[in-house]
Amino acid sequence: MEPCWSLVVPVKRLTWAKSRLAGLTGPRRAELALAMACDTVAAALSCPNVAAVFTVTDDADAAEALREVGSRVVTGEPGTGLNAALVHGAAEAARQRPGDGVCALNADLPALRPGELERALDEAGGAGRSFLPDAPGVGTTLYAAAPGAGFAPGFGGASRRRHSASGAVELRHEGVDTLRRDVDTPADLRAAAALGLGPHTTKLMSRLDP
Ligand SMILES: Nc1nc2c(ncn2[C@@H]2O[C@H](COP(=O)(O)OP(=O)(O)OP(=O)(O)O)[C@@H](O)[C@H]2O)c(=O)[nH]1
Ligand SMILES: C=C(OP(=O)(O)O)C(=O)O
Question: Quick one: which residues bind phosphoenolpyruvate (predicted)?
Answer without folding.
Answer: 140, 156, 159
